[in-house]
Design a protein that fits this description.
disordered N terminus, mainly alpha, two-stranded antiparallel sheet
Length: 582
């Protein structure tokens, strides 16, 4: 027996509506999933182009995370004075967590050392999360969110700067993720009219704190929410706006202030020691010109196309225009942060990673929306411009990536092999105790593998030397090194012996004997020197000759193999005391 038509038909219509709704949700999910996975896969393919390379500075954080997880506290080496030689607490804690759960610094996974696999795997997850956030933002402002996400994924995957630094072992991937999350939360708040709610306000403050704890310059994002609120507050809405800004400030101050308190108690400073050693100068008006390097790297033509599309989107009031205004604020702050920071020796625009993530998000949205709304002639013209601009940019990215792959900056495994293991071997030969000291420049690989106490002559992990370098007092540093620290061994790279004044200081030649000095070539990986304190070998010329021969042979082996050193790992596990393999 069936229901009367007046009852049955609505039921069938409701069932069809529910079925269509489920099908729509399924298609929506599949589109989101496919676009995120495709973009992530392309990013992984490009990342594999650089093999197992990670920069030596990343290993500084590795050392701190190892010691924290092993119960020695956040220190460079067990038992040494606490000095904050890292500037990325969030990344350090993630690595320490990985070690605690057996995913990092324990051995191999599928034959790949986990000190390579875990940081790079974590970076890939961050990239996937960035693309997921792109989809969330795009879904708010365009009916083609999957297409926007796919375009963003491809754009990030071909960007050599983004890939190199996200997969360098440094904090760039998590930093870009936090900056993107902050931008998307603000965009969603503006788009939905919930910007001034407690949830949005506190979330933006907390995300800004995470950005500041990912990199010191990340504190600039604390200004994003107040600026956006000021832009969108209407007459009569001031009390609610003030309340929201105060809530956001509280969301920032509680976690960030808590870490500052910890920093003061543990390290006795309000700034990381790295910031003091690098002596970041005050910004000047000339710093604005640095933005041009970002535009040049991305490709002027592609940037011009994106700007034209943005201008077209901004012509008329709409939710899309409001959302783009909200997105431009954190993007603008990321550009300001890049311009303010002093030039970085590592190259490939290391500090631009958040710019790439946020710029790609906004650029993909405005391009897709402009093409979607344009007439046939406009679409054809825009498509031609995009093809030419994309080919130009991709060509530039390829050239940059190929060049960096051929000669990357300071592979940490090369430092492990050339400096740390060779130094351990000569220390064994000289019968030096573990309490002996070695002064170094490349710190990361040394901190992970050296059995000696590492003295950071570049000041990142040495409080006294950082204070000297902050004021460029190289004479004071030399006085401290030669008269107080008196390291048994010294290992210098490039022209650091000249930069620090060691080569010009008579005490260096008087108190230290050369074990090895490569031909002077600042561009060469093998440009390294090793010295031993003379009183250790003064009465044993045979021991000195043996030590010189050992360092020369072992260093030569590493230098000779350096053509592939940046593409491979340096053993299944890294532990203090390792020496070169026979």
């Amino acid at each position: 027996m069936t229901d009367p038509p007046s009852v049955a038909e609505p039921d069938r219509a409701q069932a069809r509506s529910m079925g269509n709704g489920r099908a729509f949700v399924r298609r929506d999910f599949l589109g989101a999933f496919a676009s995120v996975i495709a973009g992530t896969a392309l990013i992984a393919v490009h990342a594999s182009f650089y093999g197992n390379w990670m920069i030596d500075d990343a290993a500084i954080t590795f050392a701190y995370s190892r010691n924290l997880a092993d119960g020695f506290g956040p220190v460079l080496q067990p038992g040494v004075e606490p000095v904050e030689g890292f500037s990325n607490p969030v990344w350090m804690l993630l690595l320490a967590f990985g070690k605690l759960v057996g995913l990092f610094d324990h051995g191999t996974v599928f034959g790949v050392p986990d000190y390579v696999l875990f940081p790079k795997g974590l970076a890939l997850l961050c990239c996937a999360a960035i693309l997921t956030l792109v989809y969330v933002a795009a879904k708010r402002v365009t009916p083609r969110p999957a297409l926007v996400t796919l375009i963003a994924g491809v754009a990030l995957a071909v960007n050599s700067s983004f890939i190199i630094w996200c997969f360098s072992g440094l904090e760039n991937s998590v930093y870009a993720l936090v900056a993107t999350a902050l931008a998307v939360v603000i965009l969603c708040g503006v788009n939905s009219g919930t910007l001034l709610t407690t949830k949005i306000a506190v979330s933006t403050g907390a995300l800004a704190a995470l950005a500041g704890l990912s990199r010191p310059d990340g504190v600039i994002y604390a200004a994003a929410f107040p600026i956006v609120v000021a832009l969108f507050t209407r007459r009569g809405g001031l009390p609610a706006a003030i309340r929201a800004v105060l809530l956001s400030a509280a969301g920032f101050i509680v976690p960030f202030g808590g870490y500052l308190l910890f920093r003061w108690i543990e390290y006795g400073r309000l700034l990381p020691n790295t910031a003091i050693a690098k002596a970041q100068p005050l910004p000047t008006i000339e710093d604005i010109a640095k933005a041009g390097t970002v535009l040049q790297y991305a490709g002027w033509l592609l940037v011009a196309v994106a700007i034209v599309c943005l201008a077209l989107v901004m012509q008329k009031p709409s939710k899309l225009r409001a959302s783009m205004v909200a997105l431009l604020v954190p993007f603008g702050l990321s550009v300001v942060a890049f311009c303010v920071l002093q030039a970085d020796w590592m190259g490939q625009l290391r500090f631009a990673t958040p710019i790439w993530a946020l710029g790609t998000l906004g650029g993909a949205i405005v391009i897709v929306e402009t093409v979607r709304k344009a007439r046939i002639r406009g679409r054809a013209l825009l498509a031609c411009a995009l093809v030419v601009a994309t080919v130009s940019s991709v060509s530039g990215f390829y050239t940059q990536g190929k060049s960096y792959r051929a000669a990357p900056k300071t592979p940490f495994c090369s430092v492990v092999e050339r400096d740390a293991r060779v130094a351990n071997g000569v220390a064994d030969l000289l019968k030096l105790p573990n309490s002996a000291k070695i002064g170094v420049i490349d710190l990361g690989g040394m901190a992970l593998v050296s059995r000696l106490q590492v003295i950071d002559l570049a000041g990142l992990a040495d409080r006294v030397i950082a204070d000297y370098l902050r004021t460029a007092d190289f004479a004071g540093e030399r006085q401290y090194v030669f008269n107080e620290v008196r390291p048994e061994l010294i290992s210098l790279i490039g022209t650091w012996d000249t930069t620090l004044g060691f080569a010009q200081d008579p005490r260096f030649a008087q108190e230290y004997e050369v074990l090895y000095r490569s031909p002077r070539n600042a561009a060469a990986f093998g440009d390294v020197g090793v010295w031993v304190r003379k009183d250790l070998v003064r009465n044993d010329s045979a021991l000195l000759a043996e030590a010189q021969n050992y360092v020369t042979i072992e260093t030569g082996k590493v230098v000779a193999s350096n053509s592939v050193a940046h593409l491979r790992s340096c053993g299944d596990r890294l532990r203090p005391g390792q020496t070169p393999t026979p």
